[in-house]
């Protein structure tokens, strides 16, 4: 099987960096989906690390918890400087891709961490955050998540300010978990491409976290990318398989185009797994499946890494900025 380079746009592994008694990132640990040994086996050249804001820290305590997660991340990275490199700029990205190190990009999953302040966004940028998932499933200061029952509410006035400031700073807007109205509100405002880091096709699996065909086409029109998720509920509840996940890849390619398709596995953020995709080392099997479905090598390269890299090159700052 040919070896492909992989960009994975979402994992929740950083949450375990605070739980040293339960998790060792540096030792193969089958209780979780990702650790350094398996990451190095998987073909991943760039891993997004999401700092997920747990429900118990919403709305009070979100920022403090986010900073604890960030501290845990940096303390972990200090122990493997020869293996992983956190990227902040386009220059960092290019250097990392030309090295033997795995690139790492920091994201916050949940705009609650901003606590309604643009100053916090700017400070998180200074601390290395380069992507922000505006919502999880709830309503917050920025927008409405898919778990709410008020579908006509979307991006708030503060959320609009956040999008404009993220565009200015060079931060990637992530629309995973946002509701339909908020999704389209963001696309009207953002001056740079956005991503949906981990979701699938709603035409294949009717789950509210998945994107409808008109959303996929709208994402295409802003030159964005969707990362296909390995979460069984988003693939086919009760019957999820690699083959069924490949149906999602094919549908998105046919609906939005191969240039807007990527991988956002959601490892360490899901409880159940698909047979053959039990952890990050299963991703090459998924890539092999793309080949069997008729995608050629260049198309697979776009899906596995080139599409997300293209977007990052358009969004990230050229050099370190004060914010």
List the helices and strands and how they pair.
Blueprint: E1 6-8, H1 36-41, E2 44-52, H2 62-77, E3 84-86, H3 90-97, E4 102-109, H4 118-126, E5 129-133, H5 157-169, E6 172-174, H6 180-189, E7 195-199, H7 213-221, E8 225-228, H8 232-235, H9 242-255, E9 261-263, H10 283-292, H11 297-315
Helix pairs in contact: 4-5, 9-10
Any overview of this molecule?
Helix 4 runs parallel beside helix 5 and helix 9 (242-255) crosses helix 10. The chain has a single domain (6-315), classed as TIM Barrel. The N and C termini lie far apart (44 Å). The strands form 2 sheets. Strands 1, 2, 3, 4, 5 and 6 form a 6-stranded parallel sheet that branches. A 3-stranded parallel sheet has the order 7-8-9. By secondary structure, the protein is an alpha/beta fold. The mean pLDDT is 95. Helix 7 (213-221) links the parallel strand 7 and strand 8 (225-228). The protein is built from 11 helices and 9 strands. It has helices at 36-41, 62-77, 90-97, 118-126, 157-169, 180-189, 213-221, 232-235, 242-255, 283-292, 297-315, and strands at residues 6-8, 44-52, 84-86, 102-109, 129-133, 172-174, 195-199, 225-228, 261-263. The protein is globular.
